[in-house]
Automatic annotation (TrEMBL):
All copies of domain HhH-GPD, residue ranges: 35-186
Source organism of the structure: Formosa algae
Protein family according to the UniProt entry: Belongs to the Nth/MutY family.
The entry's keywords: 4Fe-4S, DNA damage, DNA repair, Glycosidase, Hydrolase, Iron, Iron-sulfur, Metal-binding
NCBIfam families from the UniProt entry: mutY
The protein's name in its UniProt record: Adenine DNA glycosylase
Keyword DNA repair in record: yes
Amino acid sequence: MSFSKTLTDWYSVNKRQLPWRQTTNPYYIWLSEIILQQTQIKQGLPYYEDFVTTFPTVFDLAHANEAEVLKLWQGLGYYSRARNLHFAAKYVVNERDGVFPKTYKDLLKLKGVGDYTASAIASICYNEVSAVVDGNVYRLLSRYFGIYTPINSSKGAKEFKALAQELIDKKDPATFNQAVMEFGAVQCKPKSPDCSVCPFITSCYAFGKDVISDLPVKIKAAKVTKKYFNFLVFLTPSQTTFLEQRQGKGIWQNLYQFPLIESKSALTQAQLQLELDNLEVLKDHTYEVSLYNKDEIVHKLSHQHLYTRFWIVDVDTNIKGGIPVTEVEDFPVPILIGNFIEAFNF
């Protein structure tokens, strides 16, 4: 039996029932693929359901303001996905009258859509023979065929794409692509897969050579950097506080946060006091400062770890530009800030 047939037979019995598998609407498929980038289905599913409920069509998403989209996305991380999602929706509506591109090549023109997402949409919605290659596919193919080329190298990307394209079922690319992704997620898991129930057990290179934990090969990422964040939570007698919108490029672009003092190491209260004395917003104000969390909150991102403290700054009078504390939850914020807001309970 061929690799493709074995895979799709397994899928017909073991596939999970998921809402985006009940449709070929490109808007819903696109939404699901963007949400599930670097996100597990268990976490992404409620976000998908919220998005299709709040924005049932690409027109609804395009006509929303960015703050609404970012707020709905809050907690998923990698916020550039949300900004690209909104940008692409506006492109589809304004430049294409709401009609999604129908080929792999044209789908790549959508902001935030790369090889994997374009292949998924093209195959599932339009039956185009374009193989998907994501982390699940890398893992399955590297183990089954014994491929040691690093998956995060340009050579690896080309090699695995070519192999997947060779293996794909030309008559039913949609089912094959969904099957190969599902197999990696459910059966050929990153750690301790149950090979005893795998249909490929007799022909799998990694199982036969006992090198399952060695594959796939990945070039080690650059050293993670440390940053020290000190967020200032202003409180006034009239129950207002202060939020600022992050500008420029970055993972939290256009999200809101409490005023931030970034330092090279953890600050003592005396050191923070010196920083506060130089803040224009506190000029002509009397205030008291206290540390909210004695132990730093370590927020881990892919390339950096943020060692975070929240400082409560009680100010004697109102601050220009302040907002009622009752409105804080209406703003799109990073999950780090969101967790604090929930715990602090203004």
